[in-house]
Every structure is written in C-alpha cells, then in structure tokens.
User: Fold RNA polymerase subunit sigma-70 from Methylobacterium frigidaeris.
Amino acid sequence: MATLKEFEEALRENGMQMALAILERLRERDRANRVVKPGRRIVGKKMTPELARQILELHGSTEMTQQEIAFKLGVNQGRVNEVIKRGKWLSGDQTAPEAVARDKGKARIQGAEPKRPRKAAAKSSARSGAKTKDKAGKPQRSPATAQLAFGDL
Assistant:
C-alpha cells in the first residue's frame, strides 16, 4: 500500500501537474475544515468490586481491548489493566492497599490531610546529632581528607 507522499512523488516523476494541483486543492480544503480539539479527559467512576467484576467479565467474554472496556465503562484504562493483570479492586475490603491509597488521595485533594514536614529540617536535626559539639556549642567538623600539593610529587 503506497502512502500519500509516495503517490505524490510518483505524480511528480510522471509530470502529472493537473493531478498534483487537484491534490493540493484537496489538502487546502481539508486544512480549512480541520478543527483542533483539546484532549479528551474522562472523569472516571469510583472503582468498586462490582465494576471490577464487570471489567473481568467483559475481558473474558468479548474480544474488546482494555481501552475499549475503559471507554465503555467510563473508567481509566490503567484501572482496567490493574483489575485484569493484578486482580485489584476485587475485594470490598476498605483496608486494601488500593482503597487506602484512593482515600488518602481524596483527603489530600480536599485539603483535609496536613502537609508533610520539610525534609531539610529533618536532615539538619539528624546531622547535628551525629557530630560532637565543642565548648562553644558549635558542631565540630570532621577532619578533611589529605590532599596532594605540588611539592609532594
């Protein structure tokens, strides 16, 4: 099967200027009618054990792809993959790792969960405990490693 570009090159080689003009006119018409739409964002349903079973049923009984199943049920394709490959969401257990992660994410979005402490403050307190302090209360520096000078060679 030849591509459009190969077809155009063949027309050029054979000197078919009228056919090239018609092809160019068709391209211009298509460009004029072209509409750029933003990417389609699907707001997924809450994953439930019933929805997970429905995904497995569709996967087993039809030849639908994961993407087609996701579009049909209105869920994220990644969730369909998790159900099929790893069996996630099949139990109604609220302490399952995926349910806990979902609830934490929802709490973080709503602002109910407090922000984590900064890592820099935790590191500085850990460093000060590891070094000994001298009489002035300043942390003592560890001795520098030996360096070579020009005269050492």
About this structure: The chain is about 55% helix and 0% strand. The helical segments are 4-13, 17-33, 49-61, 66-73, 77-86, 97-110, 119-130. The longest helix spans residues 17-33. The chain has a mean pLDDT of 77.
